[in-house]
Amino acid sequence: MSEEKQNTEHVKCLIIGSGPAGYTAAIYAARANMEPVMYQGLQPGGQLTITNDVENYPGYPDGINGPEMMIDFQKQAERFGTDVRFGLATKVDFTGPVHKVWVDESKEITADAVIISTGASAKWLGLESEDRLNGHGVSACAVCDGFFYKGQDVAIVGGGDTACEEATYLAKLCNKVYMLVRRDEFRASNIMAERVMNTENIEVLFHHEVKEVLGDQAVEGVLAFNNQTMEERKLEVTGFFVAIGHKPNTDIFKGWLDMDEVGYLKIEKGTSKTKVPGVFASGDAADKVYRQAVTAAGTGCMAALDAERYLTEIGKH
């Protein structure tokens, strides 16, 4: 057998990515005898693998550790026959009715249906201390982790709509919220900015940037500096939230699928269908609004059902 033949494989249903959306799609696809093959991507399990405690996912009354939860998802997908593989999709060609995807720049997979669940990655400030304390007081999701800081003082960095929304959410739970905005004004819409300014326990620090997240085992404070006066200030906080945006992991689909200016995939309303027949998008790669594990799982289910209908229509299932 030639090397070229060895490096080419045809599958009925290919799933790219392995967070809650990908694994849920895999569970439904496998149970429907679609023989799904999943490539896990750079971060098997997705963003939940950097989340310590998940307390808002139904069915876990005592909460669950994020990585543990993703292992459960994987086991369930494999139990029904999903072929879960390590590997990163690096290139696609959606020209014809059979979709081509290259894995690790070498292996070529052709697939009748493709489910995209590549997720999105939070943007970070790039500080060593932020990375070290990630999951130990540093978070990129106030809705996920705000509950753990009930009655405490926290800081959030960012000046857009998401940062304003997360700051007002935290203000309902926390004693005090420091909001650090690099510029002299918000990037957010007026209505969101006004909401923040009218919230009593949010203190907005314009012209402030984060120099360091303080603490050895957990967040004990934030060292901020005023980029106008160059003065430093230590904020006594136990939680630090980064809200400077997310980047969907969709670069390989540029030119093939419709996406917004940030890179979120556009889908037909109420479905998981992209503009290419047989290619479906689920989870945070297409959702810039909710970005929760439970909503991602729901869209993974939708993608598998949409893919099954498509395969039946084209006589491949």
Kindly summarize this structure in a few lines.
The protein is α/β, with parallel strands linked by helices and 317 residues long. The protein has 8 helices and 19 strands.
Describe this structure in words.
The strands form five sheets. Strands 1, 2, 5, 6, 7, 8 and 19 form a seven-stranded mixed sheet that branches. The protein contains eight helices and 19 strands. The protein starts with a helix and ends with a helix. With 317 residues, it is α/β, with parallel strands linked by helices. The longest helix is centred in the C-terminal third of the chain and has 21 residues, at 293-313. It folds into two domains: 3-121 and 246-313, 3-Layer(bba) Sandwich (FAD/NAD(P)-binding domain); 124-242, FAD/NAD(P)-binding domain. Helix 2 (20-31) runs parallel beside helix 3 (66-79).
Q: Which descriptors apply to this entry?
A:
5-stranded parallel beta sheet, FAD/NAD(P)-binding domain, 8 helices, alpha/beta, 7-stranded mixed beta sheet, elongated, 317 residues
